[in-house]
Amino acid sequence: MGKGDKRTKKGKRTIGSNGVTRAQKPAAKVILVKPKKKAAPKKAASPKKEVVAKKPAAKKAPAKKATAKK
Question: How far is CA 59 from CA 19, 53, 56, 63, in A?
């Protein structure tokens, strides 16, 4: 029953382990409380609008650049 005995508190201190004989204190439990969100007021169901695909506008030809005279 000395420093090398794993079953005693003295032996566990020497070895540097914790166990049944030398259990650590349980950590305090931290409880987080999430704030409740306010319920959003429900909107009246509105009929969906029909989406009409528009044709893309025709692209214009790029303007010609004036050349500098020499």
Answer: 80, 18, 9, 12
